[in-house]
Amino acid sequence: MPHDLERPDLYIDGAWVAPRKGESFEQHEASTGQRLGSAAMAGTDDVDDAVAAARRALTGEWGRLTAAERSAAILRFADELKKRGRDTSALVSRENGMPIALSGMVNGFGPAVITRYYGELAAGLDAEDIRPSPTGGDTVVLHRPVGVIGAVTPWNYPQPLAIMKIAPALAAGCTVVLKPPPETGLDGYVIADAVHAAGLPAGVVNVLAGGREVGAHLVGHPGVDKVAFTGSTLAGRTIGETAGRLLRPVTLELGGKSVSLVLDDADLGLFASKILEVSLPNNGQTCHAATRILAPRSRYAEVVDLVTDVVGGAVVGDPLDPATQIGPVVTAAQRDRVLSYVELGRQTARLTTGGSAAGEAGWFVEPAVFADVDNSSPIAQEEIFGPVLVVTPYDDVDDAVAIANDSDFGLGGVVWSADAERGFDVAARIETGSVGVNHYELHINAPFGGVKSSGLGRELGPEGVEPYLRTQSIYRR
Ligand code: NAD
């Protein structure tokens, strides 16, 4: 189902409407810098319209559905996403440079699977919850939808990150105003198209791409009951402040600088085979990418050589080519930001491969590795969000854990060990929301989210629906 790349309208109240100010933006292809298409740019008036529509929908037909009927509607939405999956994965690759092999999984396949998961979960959400009272009688605990959700999402995994908010919100009976970013505004229409085709009642899901001011307007809007945000820690702090002032519930999925901790007994062949997958997924533009590699001094030189060989030998190219392992970064600005970190790194560490702009066109950066990196340096502490890895030596396991935890962030991580139990014990000592032993992979049925500056709250798993529900206890005697 090929997608239309010229989208002059916003999706509000179940209809395609022109933005009130008539603004639009052009989107460019990351691998060529050429124009890809254009989309309507929402303004604050459009957000007002969308929030009003979402409020009406809360108490309209959608609000009157039983959990089973809501489940059926969400499953129809999942089917519509699935039909569009193949083309969606290619569209996102063109937008943000994600290699198609990954995009096929996360943008093509993932959204329908996540939606189906929450659609099935929705069917059981009206189960009776009656608890005996210690003093006689009982309490009926009702689980109600929180209300209108303001969802603000980034460009790096645009489809699954939007769906990780919309699907549990719908399962809970909420309605949603989604604001995708301009960098990947076009694929947001896939969600609107699928909602429309699935026949969800008007106003249940509204989709309006726009810039930061529009996001800020949505986050602070009096008609919004909860905010679900994924993006940078910087923006997350601002949004958290707004939510705090308004006492509005908020979920914040923010940045990361996760470790890939190689223990002295690790199978280095396995480690090497997974470097690109766990440390540079989506060209390093991944919140949970394990971009800090920690190696024992006893095997340090070996690890540096392996990482240098794998990263230096990665296939860099057109994200639509299935053989490509590293594509371009999303924009010229992002490329320049990554290159400025490379310059910073050169001052304090040893560049073993890559680090220059690459390609005749588009926003390519040769994937880079820095060795002998002090964990306190900016390239070890700050999220670069591009193909740059740092390797730091450690003395013993306590030292490795201390270095791993000496970070503002705590989102992902991996521990490599030939002894799974030892790996598990070390993994459990890392201050992070999720961590793998000898691999790293998000699971749909397990909560994902950060600690420290990586965020508040969890998405995925049954836990992912809780933020969209509010309880009401009715005491009976
Ligand atoms: P960003 O924070 O600049 O923008 C994210 C979204 O928020 C965009 O839609 C943007 O328009 C909007 N926005 C920005 N400032 C805002 C504000 N003050 N109020 C309301 N909305 C605002 O982030 P980005 O550059 O698009 O994305 C990359 C960041 O996202 C990285 O830091 C990455 O780690 C993070 N991220 C986190 C997760 C996670 O699950 N923890 C997943 C993916 C990406």
Automatic annotation (TrEMBL):
Chain ranges of the Aldehyde dehydrogenase domain: 16-474
Coiled coil (UniProt feature): none
Catalytic residue positions: 253
Keyword Ligase among UniProt keywords: no
Listed GO MF terms: oxidoreductase activity, acting on the aldehyde or oxo group of donors, NAD or NADP as acceptor
Keywords associated with the record: Oxidoreductase
Transmembrane segments: none
Family from the record: Belongs to the aldehyde dehydrogenase family.
Protein known as: Aldehyde dehydrogenase
Species assigned in the record: Aeromicrobium ginsengisoli
